[in-house]
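Quick entry between incubations.
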Amino acid sequence: MKNFITRSSWHVWALTAAVVLALYFIVLFPTLRLLGQAFSSRGLEGFTTSLQGGQGDQNVLLNTVILGVLVGLLGMIGGFVLAMARTRLNFRGKRLFHWIAMLPLISPPFAIATATVTLFGKRGIITDKLLGLEVDVYGLPGLVIVLALSFTPVSYMNFCGMIRNLDPTLEEAAQSLGASHIKTLTKVILPMLLPGFATAFLLLFVEAAADLANPLALGGDFHVLASEIYFAVAGNGDVAYAAGVALALLIPSVSVFFIQRYWVGKKSVVSVSGKPAGEPRPLSSPWIKAPIAVLAGAWMTLIVLMYVTIAVGGFASILGVDNTLSLEHYRFIFRLGSDAITTTVSMTLVAAPIAVIIGSLTAWLVVRRLKKSAGILDLIGVLGLAVPGTILGLGYAIAYSSPTWLFGHQLLPAIAAGGSVLGGAVGIIMVYVARGVPASQQSSIAALRQVSVSLEEAAASLGAGPMAVLRKVTAPLIAQSMLTGFTYTVTRSMTVITAIIFIVTPETKVMAGQILDEVDAGRFGNAFAYCTVLIGLVLAILIATELLNRLVSRRSHTSKETV
Amino acid sequence: MTIDLHAEPSSVRFTNITKRYKTGRGSVTAVEGFNLSIEPGELVSFLGPSGCGKTTTLRMVAGFEEITDGELTIAGRRVNDIEPHRRPISMVFQSYALFPHLNVRENVAFGLKLRHEPKDKIQELVDSAMESMNISQYAKRAPHELSGGQQQRVALARAIVTEPRVLLFDEPLSNLDAKLRVRMRTEIRRIQSELGITSIFVTHDQEEAMSISDRIVVMRDGRIEQVGNPQEIYQEPANAFVADFIGSSNLLEVDASAVELGAGDNEVLVPVLGTRMPIRTTGRPWDPSHSWKVLIRPESVRVRHEDEASAGAHDVEARVRGYQYFGDHVRVECEVDGLVLESRMYGHGHHFDAGDACRVSIVAEDSRLIRD
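Done. Structure below.
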């Protein structure tokens, strides 16, 4: 049963219309235009060819599925182990552990790929110099490792939340009934986390299957659907064919996303209703502790190794070949890349607040205002995340690289890709917003469900109209989750390349795009320097936000971790 | 349409108020044909078990629930279609609903600030409201730093500071412990009569309703069972439901064929404990086509040891089934002719053991014949 707020007032209608219109332009319209192209005859050709394995001699569809499954499994296990280590092992420096585990999330896509080549490539520091092995990381094995490392933070976060919410008394109950530590793990903890494993696997499957940046940098001859799309556009300019291939990737991605969201998500037996019934207790059995510690330790070592390589690589002539100290790379990026740095940061800082506003207003409409249509609006909102970046970007290229017409009137000029207004910046910002809205929306929905309706009723009974309630009560109470949405959008926007690869223009340089160019040209040193600067900037923004947050909410009773 | 908030206490009139919710399969009626007129300055309680529609009715006054049918007026003006924030009411919530992002003072000032009152006026009104609720010393605290009772005082101060015409209480005391509840209800009554604000108080606690109200509305299944002052509700309950809900009661079956009309008004002779007792009916006259019950309050049942001297009243042999000691009173359960009677006796010197033989008498004047 909804409350009084469902009553109409023109403000609310105006706001609803504005939100729906915004969502339409940032996600729905590009997606629909893409589908339009995909269902053209050339598009359907691309679609059927993809289903049959693609044009070349390798089966691209199968490659994509294999990559997705392997990354899904590895990342799922990795996330579980890291989360168990953080929540259930006793050691010092848990905050540091957490930050390192999350590091891949705030770094650009090529960072780990480039470091992997430098460390484990044909002439890699470890494989060749140290061990004298003949290894080729290009192709499937390298991709699996890099993608798993990159996306594990997603499953790690997911598991952390779930394990925290496990009622520790259930384990005590099992043990008091005679279950050993191992049995408690296999019969109680693991079964309760089953939806978590499913979620982690599905999310990572989609991320890996749809990723474009790493297959470009590290795929070698191993082609996947996403790279097929890229080559169809960048190589042949065959947008319709690309849209058809995109459809083949879109269908499984979107299905898996919604299966995860509406089915697996609901199957969760872990209570998320209120406060957990106590802190998770440290594990006591060495038979469980040891493997977790070893695996988590190995994983962390690998991540640290990667980032040390990135940090050092920017200051070496050619890391692994000529290790002399050199500031050449930094000189290069500050000479040629300062443009890209300021553009990226400013576009991000424009996009993030917009994403937060749209996301939290959507959440508010979904939770408090709408009845039957709430589900539809919720779905449109999260579409920006459900549609893989490559495909959303292609949709933008199709929809916005020429003016938008409505009933014979020009509604919008070209706003994306070359030759459009503001050098295509508007299109890129819109993509940032589209990718940021879902996070903001989801965290705000969760927060709003915790805010008692009686607070809003109290405000109304004291004379606050619907808009005043929203401004003075609701918004301040979900400020924390809006902040989460902000930091998420910042990290996503700063590091994204896949979703904007088709609409970056020479006028609007984006850091992630510059890194791609440097990696393409084999100038790894420059790429490392860019990555380091980019990670530094993201961290700076995150820390500044957190400090601001502490300053503002010193009085607020809600305390929450960010990132 | 806005109603001037700075005004005399107002009447509240419910005319055939009905609330239906649409569900998947048709609709559910939460409140039906609710008629009531509340006088200016009166404190009326809505009392009933959960799901009886009392809170729904209150929320219709606040404007949080739309009225399906009927008319609601405040101070003679129809308010059915007025939005909650434009109604001259304030509400005190069960959960207190204090804004967690504001401190105590800001919470109290919330409503006044919305009206853009001049700063010094807000200052003055907030100060006096906090003073009267004894919370001035917590002005700078956050709500979560206060105890439940203190939070409720803040909620009350916040509600009265805007000088509403009607004050609504939605089970405001149910989250407090027993002692505090008694203190707070006295406090609420004091403030309410000082300010003379028309108030509606929703509760499921009959003792609370009895102690605080000018009148009580007893509800069941969305309908009014009885309206009356606390004495009427307790002494002259309209039916067995009201009698059973208010206080504890012995309700005895009546064999209609054995009832004879008595001497006085509304008095009938009813066979109880082997004798014909003159018992008054409540409200309606005797009508053998209905089902009736005899209501005997436990305090009207006297139990004495077999060897104690009789007080002269008609008494019968019985056997003690249970005995509980409460300090100021004792509760005795006796078995008479297969019936179980509960007795409550105040003062000291009453001691029984289960299994004791005893004699039981009933104060007929305080007993009533009521509709089932």
